[in-house]
Amino acid sequence: MIKQSAHGIFIIPMRHDDSMQLNSIENLIIRPLNVDDENAFNLAVSEFKNNEPGWEFAFKYEQTLIFSDYVQMLERWALGRDLPDKFAPNTFLVGVIGKRIIGRVSIRHVLNDYLSSVGGHVGYGVIPSERRKGYGSKILNLALPVAASLGISRLLLTCDDDNPGSIKVIENNGGVFENLIQDTNSMKMKRRYWIEL
Ligand SMILES: CC(C)(COP(=O)(O)OP(=O)(O)OC[C@H]1O[C@@H](n2cnc3c(N)ncnc32)[C@H](O)[C@@H]1OP(=O)(O)O)[C@@H](O)C(=O)NCCC(=O)NCCS
User: Fold this and answer.
1) d(Cα 35, Cα 75) in Å, to the nearest integer?
2) DSSP H or E stretch at residue 74
3) Is 14 helix (H, G, I), strand (E, B) or coil?
4) Domains and CATH numbers, the chain
5) Which DSSP letter does residue 90 get?
6) Dist. CA 158 → ligand 1 center (Å)
7) What is the reported pTM?
8) 126 CA → ligand 1 middle, Å
9) Rounded distance from Cα 131 to ligand 1 centre (Å)
10) pLDDT in tens, 39-92
11) Confidence of residue 1 (pLDDT cuts 50, 70, 90)
């Protein structure tokens, strides 16, 4: 960084601090939500709510909930406990760079009737302001070994036929197209893909 002063030009060495990591995909990790994430999580939730209200970033989340209760509820869901009606046991992980939540991924451990036709094993989302930077593809990529560790050997991924970003995320991760079906709930056409783990 070069800074001009009244006395001439000084070269200011770059400091390796948090702000330099903000947009670096190498620093993107996925991990469980924890109690320190409340502000970052609310920012991500609000961004989705304001820009894409139809897509559920955080299942069963209300900002009026006690955040630690929500974190514990997610932990119970991962153990298959206290699941809402029609929910499969699932692991909910946030995609994080530093303290910022960039996106999330939800991995369903088993497929029920709906999931095996329409929903698939995995749902992912990236906050609207951070799209088209490779984060969606990397979040799914990081989720693959997690799914394998949950005992899943063939991962079903589905996406709307009119969602080019999601199609690419799946294909970037080696998804093999199986077929196109109609979602009888939304009446949308869904693409179904498989990834061998
Ligand atoms: C789908 C989604 C996760 C993609 O996230 P992302 O961070 O933009 O994904 P990436 O940056 O990895 O993009 C992957 C590819 O898709 C392309 N892409 C992304 N959005 C696109 C769009 N709206 N139109 C066309 N191409 C798009 C990117 O350019 C990139 O192309 P490349 O691989 O040739 O470079 C994001 O748009 C999203 O959260 N959408 C809402 C939720 C959703 O639909 N989730 C998926 C269903 S579960």
Assistant:
1) 12
2) helix 67-78
3) coil
4) 25-151 (3.40.630.30)
5) E
6) 14
7) 0.91
8) 8
9) 6
10) 999 999 999 999 999 999 999 999 899 999 999 999 999 999 999 999 999 999
11) very low
